[in-house]
Amino acid sequence: MDNNQLMRIGEFAKAANVTIRTVRYYLECGLLPPEKRNENNQRIFNDEDLHWITNLHYLREAGMSIVELQHYTALVREGDNSLPQRIELMRKQRKQVIASIADKQEQLKVIDHKLERYLAGDSTVM
């Protein structure tokens, strides 16, 4: 889809793989650009909006809070001057994701150990 193709909220939510409720919530929180409306007064979104919400959704899934996303959004809107702060924010988030991956790897080890013992016939493992 090109930048001139506009989507109504349902199409936009589907393309972004989020719910309409999430789109509305992000709008209320100021995470999406100001609303644009068509001649029927329906909210409309473009590819740039789709790219933005997709990235916000990934950051949210990576553990960023709404407050952190609002801060990030404000920094992006400030432009080039905020680049050092955005770099620091992404570094912090990266560390959190790496820690989360390490935790998941430990959890997987425990599950694999239990599975191995159960498959060996040891039913006493808790």
From TrEMBL:
Tell me the InterPro entries matching this sequence.
DNA-bd_dom_put_sf (IPR009061), MerR-type_HTH_dom (IPR000551), MerR_fam (IPR047057)
Q: Which Gene3D superfamilies match?
A: 1.10.1660.10
Boundaries of every HTH merR-type domain copy = 6-75
- PROSITE patterns annotated for this entry? HTH_MERR_2
Q: Which UniProt keywords apply?
A: DNA-binding
Q: What is this protein called?
A: MerR family transcriptional regulator
Q: Which organism is it from?
A: Lactiplantibacillus dongliensis
Mind giving the lineage of the organism this protein is from? Answer: Bacteria, Bacillati, Bacillota, Bacilli, Lactobacillales
